[in-house]
Structure formats: C-alpha cells, structure tokens
Design a protein that fits this description.
The chain is mostly beta strands and 184 residues long. The chain is 5% helix and 61% strand.
C-alpha cells in the first residue's frame, strides 16, 4: 500500500505525533474458538501479524539521521507489531458462584534501532470468583474478587526504544480487586 500513516512518541512529552511511510505492508491471521454450555464457557484466540513500513516521507525532523537513512532503504517493523498474540479463558457457574481464569500471551513488541529487535515474550494469568447475593429490600447484588497477574511476572510492553517509542511501559503487577454491582 502507499502512504502508510503511523504515530510515534518522540521525545519526553507523552504526546503522539503523526508521520507517514511511503509504503506499508500489513497482514495477519486470527483464529478464534468458543464453547458454551449452561454452566461452562471457554474461549481461545491466537493471532499472527506482520506490519512493516519503508521510507519516512513526513515528520522526518523527529528521527535520528542514521535511523532515517536506514528506513529509507529497508523495510522496518512497525512499533505495534507483535508477531504472536494469544488469549484463553474459562468460566464455570456453580450455584450462585462463577469461577473464572484467563491468560494473555504476547511474543513481544518491537524495540531498538529501527525496530530491528523485539522485547521478550510475556504471559499474564488472571483469576476471579463472583457470587450473586439477594439482599431483602435492596435486590440483587453481585460481588467479585479478581486477581490480576497472579504469577506476579514483571514484564515490559515497551522499553522506550524503537521508532516513535519515547517512554517505557509495563504490564500490571499482581493486584487484587473487589467489586460490587447492583442490578436493576
């Protein structure tokens, strides 16, 4: 395709600036499954993607001259390209309680000079239990306890390097959340 528009964070300000590649190639495939019964639900998702650009034609002032010269003659991976991504989830309803677990996997976003390297892969596992309560005079409530990143694996989504990536970003650390929902 011609004239691929992208965004990047150049410098310390957390503001995205648009720029264009003269050419772009983006393709991928996604496979999804789901299964549902009265008490059990499952889902899986697996995706492969490739996203590349060549020759920056606008916003060149944001780039280091060496990187700009390299991009002018080479196809480079876009900063949001992650070759493999996947997720899976399961929930089971037993009486007034629902137990659930899900996992998210990523093969790592691009990094380094002209996005020629990538960050390590990551896996995050989350768990939850919810319960329905009938409170006389108040109605139906749902309480939920969630555990995010149950293995407490610290991982970087971005390390602050690469094309248009000016700040590191991290996945969440282990956290517990309690929520209550009132149904009307």
């Amino acid at each position: 395709m011609k004239d691929l528009q992208a965004e990047g964070q150049f410098g310390n300000a957390l503001i995205l600036s648009a720029f264009n590649y003269a050419e772009g190639r983006i393709c991928g495939v996604e496979l999804t499954t789901s299964y549902h019964t009265e008490h059990l639900s499952t889902c899986t998702n697996l995706a492969y993607s490739s996203a590349k650009g060549r020759e920056v034609v606008t916003g060149q002032f944001n780039f280091d001259p060496d990187e700009l010269d390299y991009i002018a003659t080479h196809w480079v991976h876009l900063d949001h390209e992650q070759r493999w991504a996947g997720s899976a989830g399961i929930s089971y309803r037993w009486a007034a309680a629902t137990f659930s677990a899900d996992a998210v996997y990523g093969s790592g976003l691009r990094r380094g000079f002209a996005n020629t390297d990538n960050l390590p892969s990551y896996l995050q596992i989350n768990l939850a239990v919810g319960h329905d309560f009938n409170v006389p005079g108040f109605g139906k409530l749902n309480g939920r306890l969630s555990l995010v990143n149950g293995l407490d694996r610290s991982y970087q989504l971005r390390d602050g390097s690469g094309i248009g990536v000016g700040a590191p970003q991290f996945g969440p650390r282990r956290a517990f959340y309690v929520s209550v929902r009132k149904e009307y």
